[in-house]
Design brief:
- Its cofactor is FAD.
- One of its GO terms (biological process) is 2-oxoglutarate metabolic process.
- It catalyses: N(6)-[(R)-dihydrolipoyl]-L-lysyl-[protein] + NAD(+) = N(6)-[(R)-lipoyl]-L-lysyl-[protein] + NADH + H(+).
- This is Dihydrolipoyl dehydrogenase.
- The chain has 468 residues and is an alpha/beta fold.
- It is 33% helix and 26% strand.
- Helix 6 links the parallel strand 9 and strand 10.
- The longest helix is centred in the first third of the chain and has 26 residues.
- It is globular and about 70 Å long.
- 44% of the residues are buried.
- The mean pLDDT is 97.
- The chain binds flavin-adenine dinucleotide.
- The site of flavin-adenine dinucleotide (FAD) has 37 residues, from helix 1, strand 2, helix 2, helix 3 and strand 4.
C-alpha cells in the first residue's frame, strides 16, 4: 500500500550537498526528510575525495622512503600490503566519516530514509524503500543527486580489466601496468597513487595538454615531476577500441597524434569525466529544466525554474567539487528558512592532489588581464623556504595576483607541498578584499610553509627579503 505523509523540506541525496542542506535546514527550525538510495556521504565520502586522498597520503609516505637514505634514515625491505591498507581506509576513515554523518543527522533531528526518490508532481515525492512506497507532500524540495562517471563507449567498467574511479580505489593488488584513459585530475591522482605503489602507469589524454584550464607554469611543475616519477603521459591520444584480452591483460588501440598504436595493460582506468545524475527523478514530469549538458540551472538562491524546488552540488553544475556542494547546501537551507542569503562563486578554491599539489583561487594573471585588470604579480618558490627544504619537498611556488589600481589580492596560484592547506588563506584574502599590505603585515610563523605566501605578496610589492 502507499502512505502519504507531510514534510516541510525533502532533500534528495545524502552526499556533501544534501546532508549539509538537511542539517542546516534542521538547525534553522525546519522539519527535514533526507532520502538517500545508497550510502550517506555520497560520492565524496564513499568513492571520491576521501578514499582517494587516503590512498594518496599513504602512497606519498611510501614513496618518500626512497628519499630517506640521503637524510640518514635507513630501512630495509619496505613493502605495501594493499588488502590491509584498503581495510584500514574503509574502517578507520570512510566508515568513521559516514557514521559521523548519520550521527549528525540524528543529533539535528533530520529524518533519514534509505530509498530512491522521484517526483510524483510539483508538491509530492514518491520514495521507494525496500518494503514500501511512501508519498510525501512537501513545501520545499532540494535536489542533491550528484553526478556519475561518464562511460566511454565500448569500455564499460567490468571490475576486472576496465575500472571506474570507484573500482580503481578499491583494488586489492597493485596492477603491474595501469593504463589511465583521461588526464584530468581524477586520472592524474589515481595514476600517481599506483605509480608510487609500484605500478607502471601510462596516461592517455585526448587534448594537446593535461589540465589545460590551469596556467602553463603551474602544470609545468607537475609535468616535470610526473616525468621524474616515471609516469608516461601521452597527449593527443584518442582511444579507439579494445583489441583483445586475456585473464591477465587487455590490449586497446588508440590514435596518437593521428597514428594508430596499441597499448597493453593489466587494468584500464576510464576517467573521462562526470555527468549530472538526474535519471529516474521524474524532472520532465514536473517541468524542472535541465541545460544541454543535463545540469539543472539555478539562480543565486539555488532555485530551479520552480522556486520551491532547489538544486545544489554536482547536479547543479560546475565546478563539481565537494566544498562547492556543501556551500550551496547551506545557502539553499538558509533561503528556505527565510534568511537573506545568496551564492557568490568567485572564490571557490580548486585543488588537485597530485605530487606536487596544485591549488588555485580567484583569477590567474592571464584571466585577470583578459578581464581588463591592470595586474601586479609576485612570486616565491618553495626552494627559498627553510621548512620546505627540511621536509625534502621543495618543488613549486606561490604566485599572487593583485589589482594594480586598488592593491587588492584577486587571485593566487600555487604548486608545491601542502598547498591544499595553504590555499585557504588566499581564499580568505580574496573574500575579504585584502590588500597586499595587509597580508604582508600579517606575521606568519617561522619556519612554516605559509611564509611562502607572505613572501610572494612582498615580492609583488618589490619588498621581498628572501627572493630576488
Ligand atoms: P554526491 O556526492 O554524488 O551525492 C549524491 C547522492 O545522491 C548519492 O549518495 C546518491 O546515491 C544519491 N541519490 C542520487 N539519486 C537519488 C535518488 N533518486 N534518490 C535518493 N538518493 C539519490 N571533490 C573535491 O572537492 N575534492 C576532491 O578531492 C575530490 N576528489 C574526488 C575524487 C574522485 C575519484 C571523484 C569521483 C570525485 C571527487 N570529488 C572531489 C568530487 C566530489 O566527490 C563531488 O563534487 C561531491 O561528491 C558532490 O556532492 P553532491 O552531494 O552534489 O553529490
Amino acid at each position: 500500500g502507499e502512505f502519504t505523509e507531510e514534510v516541510e523540506v525533502v532533500v534528495i541525496g545524502g552526499g556533501p550537498a544534501g546532508y549539509t542542506a538537511a542539517i542546516r535546514a534542521a538547525q534553522l527550525g525546519k522539519e527535514v526528510l533526507l532520502v538517500e538510495k545508497k550510502k550517506l556521504g555520497g560520492t565524496c565520502l564513499n568513492e571520491g575525495c576521501i578514499p582517494s586522498k587516503t590512498l594518496i597520503s599513504v602512497a606519498k609516505q611510501y614513496s618518500t622512503i626512497e628519499k630517506w637514505a640521503e637524510m640518514g634514515m635507513n630501512i630495509s625491505d619496505a613493502s605495501i600490503d594493499l588488502p590491509t591498507l584498503q581495510k584500514w581506509k574503509q574502517e578507520k576513515v570512510v566508515n568513521l566519516l559516514t557514521q559521523g554523518v548519520a550521527g549528525l543527522c540524528k543529533a539535528n533531528k533530520v529524518n533519514v530514509v534509505e530509498g530512491e526518490a522521484m517526483f510524483a508532481n510539483e508538491h509530492q515525492i514518491r520514495v521507494a524503500t525496500e518494503h514500501q512506497t511512501v508519498l510525501y507532500n512537501f513545501q520545499h524540495a532540494i535536489i542533491a543527486t550528484g553526478s556519475v562517471t561518464v562511460e566511454l563507449p565500448g569500455f564499460s567498467p567490468d571490475g576486472t580489466h576496465i575500472l571506474s574511479s570507484k573500482e580503481a580505489l578499491e583494488l586489492n593488488e597493485v596492477p603491474k601496468h595501469l593504463l589511465v584513459v583521461g588526464g584530468g585530475y581524477i586520472g592524474l591522482e589515481i595514476g600517481t597513487i599506483y605509480r608510487k605503489l609500484g605500478a607502471e602507469v601510462t596516461i592517455l589524454e585526448g587534448l594537446p595538454d593535461i589540465l589545460p584550464q590551469f596556467d602553463n607554469s603551474l602544470t609545468q611543475v607537475l609535468k616535470r615531476n610526473l616525468n621524474k616519477m616515471g609516469i608516461n603521459v601521452i597527449t593527443e591520444a584518442m582511444v579507439v577500441k579494445e583489441e583483445k584480452r586475456s585473464d591477465k591483460e587487455i590490449t586497446i588501440s588508440a590514435k596518437v597524434k593521428g597514428e594508430l598504436q596499441s597499448f597493453t595493460a593489466e587494468k584500464v582506468l576510464v576517467a573521462v569525466g562526470r555527468k549530472p545524475n538526474t535519471s529516474g527523478l521524474g524532472l520532465e514530469k514536473v517541468g524542472i529544466e535541465t541545460n544541454d549538458k543535463g545540469f539543472i540551472p539555478i539562480n543565486n538562491k539555488c532555485q530551479t525554474n520552480l522556486n520551491h524546488i532547489y538544486a545544489i552540488g554536482d547536479v547543479a553544475g560546475e565546478p563539481l567539487l565537494a566544498h562547492k556542494a556543501m556551500y550551496e547546501g547551506k545557502i539553499a537551507a538558509e533561503i528556505i528558512a527565510g534568511k537573506a542569503s545568496a551564492i557568490d562563486t568567485e572564490t571557490i578554491p580548486f585543488v588537485i592532489f597530485t605530487d606536487p599539489e596544485i591549488a588555485v583561487v580567484g583569477l590567474s594573471k592571464k584571466q585577470a588581464e583578459e578581464q581588463g585588470y591592470q595586474v601586479i604579480t609576485g612570486k616565491c618558490p618553495f626552494k627559498a623556504n627553510g621548512r620546505a627544504l627540511s621536509l625534502n619537498d621543495s618543488d613549486g611556488y606561490i604566485e599572487v595576483v593583485a589589482d594594480a589600481e586598488t592593491n587588492m589580492i584577486i587571485g593566487v596560484q600555487m604548486a608545491g607541498p601542502e598547498v591544499s592547506n595553504l590555499i585557504s588563506e588566499a581564499a580568505l584574502a580574496i573574500e575579504m578584499g585584502t590588500q597586499l599590505e595587509d597580508l604582508a603585515l600579517t606575521i606568519h610563523p617561522h619556519p612554516t610553509l605559509s611564509e611562502v605566501m607572505q613572501e610572494a605578496v612582498e615580492n609583488a610589492m618589490k619588498l621581498s627579503i628572501h627572493t630576488i
